[in-house]
């Protein structure tokens, strides 16, 4: 009898408005794995800064990234797997996350600035203003060939993105 592999720990990453929450929730459901939202790890000061249209700097991000890495580590230790959203825009941010769980799989949702800006302008109830989108694209460092993950074009629908993510990491 072949033993089933534990669910993976997956980071759904990309700029604001790309659809991380939608895809991550569906992916977590399909995997039967816990789900978390990186926004819930930000202190109030970070939320206030972004709400005011001020981009976060690295010093703002490190504590949040370390907490997410710990969440990932716990999911790995438990064997439950997990899916979390996190912009993870820079390689060094992803390195911090991998320190928590080295086998993490990154699903980078990628899309055209115009499309993503349009999506952001139509969403309600989120603190991240469209005015910060350019700052996110400016610092974005796409996944490198030596990073475990996949880059998926968000012109596909959420169900197609989830199916492709599952195919990419062999679930």
UniProtKB/TrEMBL annotation:
It catalyses: D-gluconate + ATP = 6-phospho-D-gluconate + ADP + H(+). One of its GO terms (molecular function) is kinase activity. This is Gluconokinase. It comes from the Bacteria. The lineage of its organism: Bacteria, Bacillati, Actinomycetota, Actinomycetes, Mycobacteriales. Keywords: ATP-binding, Kinase, Nucleotide-binding, Transferase. Its EC number is 2.7.1.12. InterPro entries: P-loop_NTPase, Shikimate/glucono_kinase, Therm_gnt_kin. Coiled coil: none annotated. Transmembrane segments: none annotated. Pathway: Carbohydrate acid metabolism. Belongs to the gluconokinase GntK/GntV family. CDD domains: GntK (cd02021). It comes from Mycobacteroides saopaulense. Gene3D superfamilies: P-loop containing nucleotide triphosphate hydrolases. It holds the Pfam family SKI.
């Amino acid at each position: 009898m072949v033993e089933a592999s534990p669910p993976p720990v997956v980071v759904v990453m990309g700029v604001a408005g790309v659809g991380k929450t939608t895809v991550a929730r569906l992916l977590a459901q399909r995997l039967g794995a816990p789900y978390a939202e990186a926004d819930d790890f930000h202190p109030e000061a970070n939320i206030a800064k972004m709400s005011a249209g001020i981009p976060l700097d690295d010093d703002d991000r490190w504590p949040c990234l370390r907490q997410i890495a710990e969440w990932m580590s716990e999911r790995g230790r438990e064997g439950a797997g997990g899916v979390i959203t996190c912009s993870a825009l820079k390689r060094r941010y992803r390195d911090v996350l991998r320190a928590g769980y080295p086998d993490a799989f990154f699903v980078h949702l990628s899309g055209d600035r115009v499309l993503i800006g349009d999506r952001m302008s139509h969403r309600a109830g989120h603190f991240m203003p469209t005015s910060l989108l350019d700052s996110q694209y400016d610092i974005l460092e796409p996944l490198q060939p030596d990073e475990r993950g996949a880059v998926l074009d968000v012109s596909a629908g959420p169900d197609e993105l989830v199916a492709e993510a599952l195919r990419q990491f062999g679930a």
